[in-house]
Amino acid sequence: MENVHILAQRVSTRGDYLPFNTEQYINREADPIYKLIEELQTTLHIDELLTVFAEHVQRIIKLSGLQFHSSLGVAQMYNSDNQHTPYKFDLELNEEHLGQLVYFCQYQLSDAIKEKLCRLHSTLLYPMRNALTYNRVLKLATKDSLTGLYNRSQFSDNLAQRIERGRRLQNNFSLMLLDLDNFKQVNDRHGHSAGDEVLIKFADILKQSVRTTDTVYRFGGDEFAIIIDDPQFTTNKVIAERVMHAVRQCHLLSKFAVTTSIGYTLSNIKDCETSIFARTDKGLYKAKADGRNCARNS
């Protein structure tokens, strides 16, 4: 990783490293495009880049949602509503395909509007490439080597960020904790290789049971967590039932009599990392006390 460098987009009077059609805005600090260029250089988080960019795009079109699809997955602007018609644009820089930008808009985009958006994309190219490079490097240090899920360290960082974002934007989210019932006997009776197969299979079930806006983590052992980007208890119930159904239908987990217990809760404006985790853990304890293989809220 020592050979990976984050590319800085330097602004000078000559327009060094800026997209070709933005040089005209240098030394015109009152111009909104110049301000957009500056704001896009303030973060390496892809969802924040999209949110900043979307605020400017709103001056051109009535935008309801914005996503970016890349090899890292799907990122989107905050509070993205993706129910309307999608309009897709490929982002390329020096023959490198960065990914695909997807606008969601209630009204049809004319050719003239599409052309304006394509010109505006030039402001996003370098910040997006920097963010992708940064996140690819970060990903190497934040993934669980067995399951490919995010690890506990990344969970702690993401939970703190999500709490702060919820406080700032006045929107809630849900936290879910899961562990495997009867997992210890798998290791004791069949060995750790069988236990690893169970963990990998369960991780796959979790990834298939959530939406692209939700994030799954493995703490270690048979403990897992999901940050659910939805303020409704009904969403928790749907995901929990989906997970438990998939576990029951899984031949490998059924073979070892492995089920899952689940606890979940909804965040509130006064939460810190400790309080929401303790509340969710209380829900998991209720599930264990009620006979396991069930989900309980707290």
From TrEMBL:
Gene3D superfamilies: 3.30.70.270. Residues 171-298 form the GGDEF domain. SUPFAM superfamilies: Nucleotide cyclase. GO terms for molecular function: catalytic activity. Its cofactor is Mg(2+). This is Diguanylate cyclase. The lineage of its organism: Bacteria, Pseudomonadati, Pseudomonadota, Gammaproteobacteria, Alteromonadales.
